[in-house]
């Protein structure tokens, strides 16, 4: 199959997959208790496998091999995409497909800790992507609006905007929640029970369980069984973790004073001195906004710990805190805090980059400048620009001008120091002529250092429950 034929087939496959996903989403929404029995044929459907392959191939991780050493490029140049997908479909249909162990990579975290990343084989990633295409529309009809992480059309900015929205409206006490090793400790039996609530097809259930039990090939080349958790980094893990953590969303929604109660009932509770609650969750990071007292927040924190234990999860004692909005909290890299507006007596909730996030950015700038001393200035500027553009784009919708200007000054100093170390005998006049086009801002003629201070800030509009579904209604 040549490139034009593959693109044409992919276009037809995407149309077919979208139509089927829309039907699955609508059926699941119409009947919250419906269990879907014939899903395996969709997982092995040529259209679903082709779309899954395209998404896996387009991901940056396609260049990384699993335990079998194969990548997307090696399959394209060797076996060929059509033969690869035909063989994969055959192995799924005759039930001979078996997931291979994921390859472990340890990624450093802040504070000297390490995060375990699991790299599945390219074949397993395609099957997982196909599974996700089938299961996600069904479970999306059950997920509540308070969850934002790893869900279509939702982003971290929505979660931060929701925290700001409610803390500006009497929800002044915050339970900052952090789940300890969430991806590593999810109970497999409890998770499979949640899967069975919607999936009745035993072949799909067996496939999901096989991925959970595939094992891990550690960096020490020792194969270990996986008795709990979902490998962080796999395509299916975010969806399964959201399914597991939906028990938290559902519990807070149903408790007295939760979002499932009407506004009149919540107002009545507040007049009686009782609390009302709102949960905002992004993957395993969550915070609970409480309109009440600190005692109300402490009580519900204990309840949440009990609810999470049903899925084999634990709250991190060091990171699960109760704070007042005047003291502020860090959430998803943002600092959210109520301040008095300068020149007035009015108080507003502001969002701006947290010190930890700013320090992480400056540390990366410093590392790039230290590691690229012998490379041309153009290469250094390209790497810095990529980092600075991404960081400022994320923090642009907030009160971020001060942080942007600080990052601008810090980056300028690091680049100038890099130039002076690289050319120790150069004068300031010569440095400005050769590397700043006669001015003070670093440039090599082709690439100019990105200026974070020139980025204008804006305000992210809170969308609430108006976030559109990726699967439009057929009616």
TrEMBL record:
Keyword Nucleotidyltransferase (UniProt): yes
Q: According to its UniProt record, what is one Pfam family this protein matches?
A: GIIM
Per its UniProt entry, which superkingdom is the organism in?
A: Bacteria
| UniProt keyword list | Nucleotidyltransferase, RNA-directed DNA polymerase, Transferase
A GO molecular-function annotation: RNA-directed DNA polymerase activity
Which residues does the UniProt record annotate as the domain Reverse transcriptase? 88-336
Query: Which NCBIfam families would you find in this protein's record?
Result: group_II_RT_mat
User: What is the name attached to this protein's record?
Assistant: Group II intron reverse transcriptase/maturase
State the species of origin.
Answer: Luedemannella flava
Gene behind the chain: ltrA
